[in-house]
Specification:
about 400 residues; alpha/beta; VC0802-like; Rossmann fold; 9-stranded mixed β-sheet; elongated
Length: about 400
Amino acid sequence: MKEKIIRDAIYLVKVGELTLKGGNIKDFEQRLVQNAKLYLEGTNSKVRLRAGRMYIEGPESAVPAIEYALHHLIGISGWARALITEKNIEAITSAVYSEAIRLRDAGMKTFKIEARRAEKSFPLTSYEIACQAGEAVHEAEILKVNVKTPDVVINVEVRERCFVYGTSITGCRGLPCGTGGRALLLLSGGIDSPVAGYRMLYRGMKLDCLYFHSHPYTSPQAREKVETLAGILARYGVGVHFNCVPFTAVQQRIRDRGPAAYSTLLLRMCMMKTANLQCDFSGAKAIITGESLGQVASQTIENLNVTNTLANRPVLRPLIGMDKQEIIDLAIKIGTYETSILPYDDCCVLFSPKHPVLKANLEETLALYEELEIDELIQEAFDSREHMRFGCLQK
């Protein structure tokens, strides 16, 4: 069969939730395209969006970069590498035939055709396209027809050009990063906080990260672990800013002056005060934590209420109703789990009391905080912070 296929690396990308937006849909579309271009800088690739589809086209050498981008780009529901054909049934049939051979060689045995004629001037209906293209594959005995449970669906989309593709990969979905404002993630080396950060990236937020390091009680490996986690989040967030605050003096003050049972809660309060300073500096509009209701002593509703009182921004807790296994499953999916379980403790586990307070009284706890006389130490710690930025192409 003579092929009439334009050979190039082109990807057909289905945009996700942003198609439900009304009058401001253009803002979401522009942000999605802008984010995609950031992943593809220097690859000589082109990105455009039209009628609910995004198209990425580039030389064969750009394929690894394009597919890396599509695996991490938030705001798309699915994508596939496609064949482009001339806009006639002979060319479409030839492309379907070629795709069927590739799929057979990949181990597929049964197929069906799904056609979509978005370009209504095309002379055949979607059903007629599917029948004619599928007949050529069936008669050549490349794959067997199975319309109910096929091994693979070969898709044909007739738009301003014709696209044929057989394997569609699920995208990250969500809203394009940057459409939901900027927030500050309190990032630790545990499983929860990176997942919390990802869930807010998924809702269109850009992230700054704040990490508290307590040298020499926490090791350099503990900091490296958190930096690695920040780098993983940056792959999805089109880059993140990372700030490391030296918190040893703050924790020593809590140990020396605060009741042992309140030490973890007082530490969380000091972290919120530091987060306020960082938000004032960076312009972040909210604070994100990895807290889940009742998971540990500091995460009872009473204790969460205490820490909330020291925040001067909204505190977002995207994991609040999730159980640990749900959080672990998402950590595995986004690639943070293996790093999070490395055996390097961060400052949250230092000086942890054997019997922490579970239902702190707000007025009493605020009085204990005032007795620490710690705001000056917090300011000094913040002023000594180290900053670095992780780009979206970190691997």
